[in-house]
Design goal:
16 helices; Alkaline Phosphatase, subunit A; globular; 382 residues; Gyrase A, domain 2
C-alpha cells in the first residue's frame, strides 16, 4: 500500500526491539542465541547508551555538531522505533525486545481499561502496578539470570520509578547526574566484572529539543557535548568491550500556528471521551457508539494532514506489532498519526508547559521513527 511519507514500523531485526536481545546474544546469553535478529560480534562486555531524542535523520542532518558519531554513521544501522515514537513506548520495546502490542506500553497517555481514566506512562502518576501492567521479563532480567552482571546508569529518580520497573528493570542501578558522571559510573561497572552489560541513559537532548526545537542552536550545542563524552567512553572502555549508541525516537519542530486545539474545535471534539496519546500521535477513546462518526469527521477535517485509522485498522496494519488480548483495550478507538509538522493539542487538560513545547514526536514520519544504532566492536574479545 502507498505510505505517503509514512515510515512503517518494524519489529524484526530492523526495529528497536532487536537491539537489546542482539547485544545479550553477543554476550552469550542463551535465550537469545538462536534468534533471527541483528548479528553482532561477540564480546565479553558491552555498554549500550540510549540518547533520548537522537533520531537518525537528525544526526544525519546535524552531524556537523558530532564529529565522532558522524564518523560512525556510514556503518550505523537505521532502525525504526515503532509506534508511537515516544519514550514510554520505546523504552518498553527496547527493554523487553517486544513490540508495543506485546509489552503493553502503548503511548504517552493511554486508557486504563475498566477505570475510565488515562494514565501517563512516562510519569506513572497514580499508575497501575508496573509489574502487572507489563509482566514480561526484560532483557536485563534474562541476562542477569544467565550470569551477566547488569548495571543501569541514570538519574536517581529513575530508580524504582513506574516506567523503569515496567520497561527496564533488572540488575543494579547506579545514580549519576551529569553525562560525564554517568560515563564514569559506566566505566567503573564495566571494569568490575568480566562479563558485564551496562546501560546508560541520557535525556537532555530530548529536553532541549522539546523546549527550543530540534533545529535550534541549543540542540546542536547539546549534541556536541554528548558527542565528546561518547568519544571518551569509547576510548576508555576495557578492550573486550563493545559499545553501542541508540535512541528511542527522533523529533520534528511543530509551529504553534499550525496546530489545532480541541478546546476550541467542537466539531473535532465531539464524541470523544478521552483524547489520549500526545499531540503527534493521538489515541481517541470515544463515547459508546460514537467511534465511526468520530473517525469519519476526523478523516473529513484533517485526513490530508494525518494518517487516521480505526483501532482494528491500526492493529491489522501492524502499527503496534502483534497485540496481546490484555492490551487491545488500551489502544484508542481511533488512532491519529500526524504528517509533516502538524499537531493537535487539547488545552482543556494539557499543562501550559506541555502546550508551549516546540519539538514534538510520536508519529510515523522518518524524522520521528527512524533511530540509529552506532556500534564500536570490542578490540579484544578473547
Amino acid at each position: 500500500m502507498p505510505h505517503d511519507g509514512l515510515l512503517p514500523p518494524r519489529y524484526d531485526q530492523w526495529g528497536l526491539a532487536a537491539v537489546l536481545p542482539a547485544i545479550a546474544a553477543s554476550l552469550g546469553v542463551t535465550r537469545y542465541a538462536e534468534g533471527d535478529g541483528l548479528a553482532l560480534a561477540s564480546a565479553r562486555r558491552a555498554v549500550v547508551v540510549l540518547v533520548d531524542g537522537l533520531g537518525y535523520e537528525l544526526i544525519r542532518r546535524r552531524g556537523g555538531h558530532a564529529p565522532f558519531l558522524r564518523s560512525l554513521l556510514p556503518a550505523a544501522y537505521r532502525l525504526t522505533a515503532g509506534f508511537p515514537s515516544t519514550t514510554a513506548t520505546s523504552m518498553g520495546t527496547f527493554g523487553t525486545g517486544l513490540p508495543p502490542g506485546g509489552h503493553g506500553l502503548l503511548g504517552y497517555e493511554v486508557l486504563v481499561p475498566g477505570e475510565d481514566r488515562l494514565v501517563n506512562e512516562l510519569s506513572w502518576e497514580d499508575g497501575p502496578d508496573p509489574l502487572a501492567w507489563q509482566p514480561h521479563p526484560t532483557v536485563f532480567e534474562v541476562a542477569q539470570s544467565d550470569g551477566v552482571a547488569v548495571t543501569r546508569v541514570g538519574p536517581g529518580f529513575f530508580d524504582g520509578s513506574g516506567l523503569t520497573q515496567a520497561a527496564v528493570r533488572g540488575g543494579r542501578f547506579r545514580a549519576a547526574d551529569s553525562l560525564a558522571a554517568r560515563v564514569d559510573a559506566s566505566l567503573t561497572a564495566l571494569r568490575a566484572d568480566r562479563r558485564a552489560l551496562v546501560y546508560l541513559y541520557w535525556g537532555d537532548l530530548d529536553k532541549v529539543g522539546h523546549v527550543h526545537g530540534c533545529q535550534s542552536w541549543e540542540w546542536g550545542e547539546e549534541l556536541a557535548a554528548i558527542d565528546g563524552e561518547l568519544a571518551r567512553l569509547v576510548r576508555s572502555v576495557p578492550s573486550d568491550t563493545a559499545v553501542y549508541v541508540t535512541a528511542d525516537h527522533g523529533m520534528v519542530d511543530a509551529p504553534h500556528a499550525l496546530r489545532i486545539d480541541l478546546a476550541h474545535d467542537a466539531e473535532l471534539a465531539a464524541g470523544i471521551r478521552h483524547a489520549g496519546g500526545e499531540a503527534r500521535a493521538l489515541q481517541l477513546y470515544c463515547e459508546p457508539g460514537a467511534a465511526a462518526d468520530v473517525e469519519q469527521t476526523w478523516r473529513e477535517r484533517v485526513g490530508e494532514r494525518a494518517w487516521i485509522r480505526s483501532r482494528d485498522q491500526a492493529v491489522a496494519q501492524g502499527w503496534f506489532g502483534p497485540v496481546g488480548p490484555d492490551n487491545l483495550a488500551r489502544i484508542g478507538d481511533v488512532v491519529v498519526a500526524m504528517r509533516d509538522n502538524f499537531a493537535i493539542v487539547d488545552s482543556r487538560r494539557a499543562r501550559p508547559q506541555l502546550l508551549a513545547l516546540v519539538g514534538l514526536h510520536g508519529s510515523l514520519t522518518a524524522e520521528e521513527s527512524a533511530v540509529p544504532l552506532f556500534h564500536v566492536a570490542a578490540r579484544d574479545s578473547g
